[in-house]
Amino acid sequence: MATSQVEGFTLLGLSIAIVFIRILIRLRQVGLRNLTADDYLMLGALVPYIAETALAHDVVARYNGLTNSGLTDAQRAALSPDSEEYAWRVGGSKVQVAGWCVYVSVIWFVKASLCAFYSRLTESVNGYRNRIISGYVLIGASYLALILSLLLSCQPFHHFWQINPNPGNLCQPAISKVYVLLTVILNVLTDVYLILIPIPMLWSARLPTIKKLSLCVVFSGAIFVMTAGILRGVLILKDPINGPKQGSSWAVRESFVAVATSNLPMIWGWLQTRLKPFLGSLLSSQSGKRREGPSAGSIMLANTNDNTGRGGCTTLVSVNRDADGSTHALRTDGQGMDYDGGHASGGGIKKEVAISVSSTLAQSTPSDSGKGVSREYNPNF
């Protein structure tokens, strides 16, 4: 087995392990019945990812990376339909069509999972609902545009694997400029949009700069996905002969990066506990100071407007789940609050719930009122 093929299956195995670590963490936290859309979408992404890896192996192992591209008109005319190379090129072209479909499906399933995760992360933060809805629309519309452009741009459909006469660039799936450029553009556009959802919240949080930077890196994994996608497109367009083979390898690498980085925010708390012996000074709070950062596995969010005319204010919310699956939260701004936004009566923290209040909340004092204390949210919730 070639090195690239070993690499492909290794990356697939690592991706499956990462997703299952994420699911196990979620199961311990919320139980099977309370898994949400982002969990199921991430599991769903593994299906086309497995198919993509198998096809990338197939196009090299069975068809030597050959397609109906990379031939002059004279070479096409001289190639016998009964030859082995002709069969390789036909089979390789068919695999490329399927490969494009599953590649796009993997990347866009991951995008949808991230958008669903951000929907949970920001569901109680003002001003984010429309951004999330727009994200869903953008992801759905771009995915539909890519699939339709692939399946409908070459007619009749069998020209996708036609050798002679030359079917034209649109019907050469390995190097079609339409597929390559449209995929790169829409990939970058959707990733930039998704990055811009959580980063402003994280950057405005009351955290040491090093923690802000680390969290921004955790939530900016799409930058690496964009880089891999752009590199893949450049390789294909620059080298129509060897580019398709390299492109298949880079498609698998891009899928791995997409799966790994998109799951990082979900398993960040789990990683923190294991990295703390090595990076304790970066992952722990400053010694000798009152703890203002998040607890392990929590994410600090930005200021929110309480619509009381006082302008922006911030709240520290400790969200917990009871054994029966119900959720509760407590606030430090003088009000009790259900997770769905309902307020308890009276001033002060008066809501009584059967939960364990985090140490961050316990350390808050009335003197915090009006100073803009931070908001804490657990992304693994």
Automatic annotation (TrEMBL):
Membrane topology: Multi-pass membrane protein
Region ranges (Disordered): 284-304, 326-345, 360-381
This protein's GO CC annotations: membrane
Entries under InterPro entries matching the protein: Rhodopsin_dom_fungi (IPR049326), SAT4-like (IPR052337)
Compartment list: Membrane
Rhodopsin domain span: 22-271
Transmembrane segments: 6-25, 37-56, 97-121, 133-158, 178-203, 215-235
Keyword Transmembrane helix carried by entry: yes
Superkingdom assignment: Eukaryota
Keyword tags: Membrane, Transmembrane, Transmembrane helix
Family named by the database record: Belongs to the SAT4 family.
Name under which the protein is recorded: Rhodopsin domain-containing protein
Organism expressing this protein natively: Emericellopsis cladophorae
